[in-house]
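ok, trying the design again with the full structure, not the truncated one.
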């Protein structure tokens, strides 16, 4: 029950409404604008690096007189696909082994090449190098939980020399907000709690420092088939 002496809630003023609309507009525009700007800048960077290496008779600008952004990206994609196709063959593998043998004999180049090759294989390799599941582990001590990614079961010397009776899982525990760095830890399988969220949702949670939670997945009720009546 209200009385005439109760203060009525004040409506937000014009400035507050404009400020709220402006902030909402920024939330909508910034991700789209930054994405377009990054892609546009990346295309320009690739064009500036690739197009000077392309003969002028293959450059569309020589015929239409307009510098088309993204032509260098197309040349780069075609060139990369051709190199990958050749590298899969017998001649390509032989050339790669011969080239790597020459690089291994050069002290400074050998270190740079091996490091870049390891990074490229880690980033672009497929199949066996992907994480299996997101999980929870107690780290750095019991009672404190951290999100990790299960990679594989421990094998070889690590499995044999660990004082664990059951399975031993290798778990990558990333740091926040940069998930590319972290710690490789080995946990007994019974100490690893698997999560239902996807790898992408767990990565978003880590990058956002716990601000972006994945939507709750309510388990579907079991579907019971109707009992057929006997005819």
């Amino acid at each position: 029950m209200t009385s005439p002496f109760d203060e009525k809630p004040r409506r937000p003023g014009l400035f507050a409404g404009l400020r709220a609309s402006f902030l909402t507009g920024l939330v909508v525009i910034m991700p789209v604008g930054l994405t377009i700007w990054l892609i546009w800048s990346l295309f320009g960077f690739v064009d500036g690096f690739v197009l000077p290496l392309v003969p002028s008779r293959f450059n569309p600008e020589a015929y239409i007189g307009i510098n088309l952004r993204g032509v260098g990206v197309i040349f780069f994609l075609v060139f990369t696909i051709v190199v990958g196709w050749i590298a899969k063959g017998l001649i390509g593998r032989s050339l790669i082994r011969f080239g790597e043998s020459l690089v291994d004999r050069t002290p400074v180049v050998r270190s740079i090449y091996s490091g870049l090759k390891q990074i490229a294989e880690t980033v672009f390799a497929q199949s066996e190098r992907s994480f299996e599941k997101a999980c929870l582990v107690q780290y750095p001590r019991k009672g404190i939980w951290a999100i990790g990614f299960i990679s594989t079961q421990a094998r070889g010397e690590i499995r044999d020399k660990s004082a664990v009776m059951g399975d031993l899982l290798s778990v990558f525990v990333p740091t926040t907000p940069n998930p590319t760095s972290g710690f490789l830890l080995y946990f007994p399988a019974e100490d690893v709690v698997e999560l239902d969220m996807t790898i992408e949702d767990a990565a978003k949670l880590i990058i956002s420092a716990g601000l972006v939670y994945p939507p709750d997945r309510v388990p579907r009720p079991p579907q019971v088939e109707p009992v057929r009546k006997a005819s």
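Keeping the full-length input from now on. Helices lie at 14-50, 61-64, 71-88, 90-104, 107-124, 156-161, 199-207.
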